[in-house]
Design brief:
single chain, alpha+beta, five-stranded antiparallel beta sheet, 13 strands
């Protein structure tokens, strides 16, 4: 991730100086005049693709001179200036081009960037270039913060991913990776649902075209607005999709591939999600709807601390199990 800043946002975003993760490593163009001499010959001679040229041209066209002179790039602490140069468009080989682009170093693709804007003008330019942006409310960004000093690296990375439709990694357990669904996951999801017993107590997927449209809306409106939802569960060992679990508002849902039943995967994943809900939502309690014939889920719910509330969802003939997650730390 490449962070674009200017003099105003650099001063306001005090997290750069208060967190060991961040070290401001920008330099002005005249401080890097020898950059081409430091790069290997193959990088100097490398031809740059149309996307890079197009991005450079758009930048030169859209940035007014006075703004171009104030922009910088900030790198994370584990990146070096030299490493960054190898991933950017041609810098010093063409002095004219370098002068035109000013201090800003643009990566190969706008999806690599997030721009901490300090004005509505910068936000509009970022939008026109396809670059994610974040700023204070007066800047008009979709992702706004009361103060830039509140920013941290995780939030910036999540905004960059959301803007570019890249699924968020929610977290890991000992054996599983939990992340948001992307449309490219649909074939694997159908394969999961086709396994014996998977739809005995849950609704099957729609036909492919209907499911595709449903998931597009779900990603935009559920993930994008609430920042939680039904996620995918992958094996950390194999990388394969092994289940689905998450939150539909304050309802907990889960399913694990049948070849992994009775091995503790559902317990492991659900404990993670309960803890996630405790830390990241305002829910006082969670509930789950369980068909009493699904004895394995009933056992799991009780193991997790859910109790039968005595209520029944008549539409699907399911009992409602509830668990307080704020006053009871045991899970």
């Amino acid at each position: 991730m490449i962070i674009i800043i200017d003099e105003a946002s650099e001063k306001l975003a005090s997290f750069y100086y208060h967190d060991e993760i961040f070290k401001l490593q920008w330099k002005r163009a005249d401080d890097m005049s020898s950059a081409s001499d430091e790069l290997h010959d193959e990088f100097q001679e490398k031809l740059y693709d149309e996307q890079q040229y197009e991005l450079q041209e758009k930048l030169q066209e859209k940035l007014p001179d006075e703004l171009r002179e104030k922009l910088y790039v900030a790198l994370l602490a584990d990146e070096s200036i030299n490493d960054f140069q190898k991933t950017t468009i041609q810098e010093s080989a063409d002095n004219t081009a370098k002068a035109n682009t000013g201090n800003l170093r643009i990566p190969k693709a706008p999806t690599d960037c997030i721009w901490i804007v300090s004005s509505r003008q910068q936000k509009q330019i970022a939008d026109s270039l396809g670059i994610a942006s974040v700023g204070e409310p007066q800047c008009g960004t979709r992702y706004a913060v009361e103060s830039l000093a509140e920013l941290d690296i995780d939030y910036l990375e999540r905004v960059r991913r959301r803007y570019n439709h890249i699924p968020w990694d929610i977290g890991e357990t000992d054996r599983c990776l939990i992340r948001e669904l992307s449309l490219s996951d649909l074939p694997a999801l159908y394969e999961l649902y086709d396994k014996p017993g998977m739809t005995d107590f849950v609704e099957p997927l729609y036909d492919y075209e209907t499911e595709l449209e449903y998931q597009k809306a779900y990603i935009e409106n559920m993930y994008g607005f609430y920042e939680y939802g039904m996620w995918l569960v992958f094996s950390r060992e194999t990388g394969k999709l092994i289940g689905r679990a998450g939150l539909e508002h304050d309802e907990l849902g889960y399913m694990i591939a049948p070849e992994l039943w009775n091995q503790g995967y559902a317990t492991e994943v659900c404990r993670f999600i309960i803890d996630y809900a405790r830390k990241n939502t305002d829910f006082e309690e969670l509930y789950c709807r369980i068909d009493e014939r699904n004895t394995a889920s009933v056992r799991l719910a009780k193991k997790l601390g859910f109790t039968n509330s005595g209520n029944v969802d008549d539409d699907i003939n399911a009992s409602i199990y509830r668990k307080n997650i704020k006053n009871n730390e045991k899970h």
